[in-house]
C-alpha cells in the first residue's frame, strides 16, 4: 500500500472544534445559541443510530438539539404541519428531515416546504438552483465534507480532472457543482457510462458515490489520484456484518496517492458539516459574519 490515508474522523473532530468555538463566541458575545431540529419518521435502526449521533454531537458543540421521532404511519399532512411549526420557531435555525421517508409521504414536497434558509441539508430546490448558479446557498453536507477534505489535501483544485461516479441529487450532482466552482474539469459518470474504467482513469480526483460495495478497484485509477469514497455499504464477510465503501480499499490504496477509508472517512465529515451548516444558517439569518473554512 502506498496511498496516504485521508483521516476523515480526525478532520471531522477538528471541524466540530471550530464549530464549538464559533458557538461559544455567539453565546459569550450575544447570549444566543443556534438550534438544530432533526425529524425521524419511522424506526429504521440505521437511521435511529445516525439521528442519535447527530443529536449528541450537536449538544457537544454547544448547540440546542431538538429531536422529533414520529411513527411510521405519520401522514404527509402531519409532517408538513410539524415543519411549518419549525419554520416559524425562532429557536430553530436548521431543520433536517431524515431520508428516506415512508411511501405515503412525498419527500420532494416535504423538503420543499422547509424554509430554504433553515435547510441545512441543502436539498430544497431553491438551494439546489442557487448552488448551480453560483449564488450563496446551503450546501449538502456529504459533498461539502468531501470538498473540505479535498481542499485540505490538494490545496488548489483548479484545472484538475475530477470524475464523480454517481448522479444522485444528494451527492453526485451537488459534488459536481462544487468541483466545477473550484475550476475542476468535471465528468459525471454513472451506470450507463461507456468505458467507465477509461473515464475513471483520467481522474486526478475520483469521488465514488454509486452505492455498490467495492465496485471501484485499483485498475479504475490513475497512479497518484486522490480518491474520496462516499459509499457506506453493509455487507456480510466471514459471518460478520462489515461496512465497506464503493472502493475496494486494498487495491485502490496501492495505486492512489491518497484515499478516504470507510468507516472513518466521509461519514464523520457529513455530520460535522451538518453542524457547520447550522452555525452558518444562524449567522446568515442574523447578518453576522460566517464561520471561516466551514462553507463552500
Ligand atoms: N436528510 C438526510 N440527511 C443526511 O445527511 C442523511 C440522511 N437524510 N439519511 C441517511 C444518510 C446517511 N448519513 C450518514 C451520516 C454519517 C455516517 C457516519 O458517520 N458513518 C460512520 C460509520 C457509522 C457506522 O459504523 O455505522 C463512518 O463512515 O465512519 C453515515 C451515514 C446521513 N444521511
UniProtKB/TrEMBL annotation:
GO molecular function: methenyltetrahydrofolate cyclohydrolase activity; methylenetetrahydrofolate dehydrogenase (NADP+) activity
This protein's record includes keyword Ion transport: no
Pfam families, per database record: THF_DHG_CYH, THF_DHG_CYH_C
SUPFAM superfamilies in the record: Aminoacid dehydrogenase-like, N-terminal domain (SSF53223), NAD(P)-binding Rossmann-fold domains (SSF51735)
UniProt cross-references to InterPro entries, sorted A to Z: Aminoacid_DH-like_N_sf, NAD(P)-bd_dom_sf, THF_DH/CycHdrlase, THF_DH/CycHdrlase_cat_dom, THF_DH/CycHdrlase_CS, THF_DH/CycHdrlase_NAD-bd_dom
Amino-acid biosynthesis recorded as keyword: yes
Binding site for NADP(+): 166-168, 232
Enzyme Commission designation: 1.5.1.5, 3.5.4.9
Ranges where the Tetrahydrofolate dehydrogenase/cyclohydrolase NAD(P)-binding domain occurs: 140-284
Catalytic activity: (6R)-5,10-methylene-5,6,7,8-tetrahydrofolate + NADP(+) = (6R)-5,10-methenyltetrahydrofolate + NADPH; (6R)-5,10-methenyltetrahydrofolate + H2O = (6R)-10-formyltetrahydrofolate + H(+)
HAMAP family xrefs: THF_DHG_CYH
Subunit details: Homodimer.
Known function: Catalyzes the oxidation of 5,10-methylenetetrahydrofolate to 5,10-methenyltetrahydrofolate and then the hydrolysis of 5,10-methenyltetrahydrofolate to 10-formyltetrahydrofolate.
Record family assignment: Belongs to the tetrahydrofolate dehydrogenase/cyclohydrolase family.
Name this protein carries in UniProt: Bifunctional protein FolD
Organism: Palleronia pelagia
Gene from which this protein is expressed: folD
